[in-house]
Amino acid sequence: MSSDEEVVKKMADLIRAGASMLQEACPVCRTPLVKLRSGEIVCPKCERRVYIVKDEVEERGLIAKLTIGSVEETLTAKLSELNRMLRDASDVDEVYDVVRAMIAVLEAIEKVRRLSR
Length: 117
Fold this sequence. Notes:
Blueprint: H1 3-16, E1 20-25, E2 32-35, E3 41-43, E4 48-49, H2 56-88, H3 92-116
Antiparallel strand pairs: 1-2, 2-3, 3-4
Helix pairs in contact: 2-3
């Protein structure tokens, strides 16, 4: 099966599952976009989420929101790393340093969450 046929099959499967095809095309590959029942807009060929914005102001707002979400994910991953380090720490000074770092990360997460409200 060719890649075009695979994309058409994916689109058909998505539409059968309740998605709707949009007039807009993917900015990367020019394939028609599909809106899932969840409201998410995806490109069936690139298999990426796509955001449609009306103007530059909306675009800047979306970029800020996505960036803040990415920062929160990164901080959460760092907190997980610190947790592993704390579990493995045996020296009291090391425990102290890791806990201080954890507190800093937790405060940063709290600030990021306040920004995203």
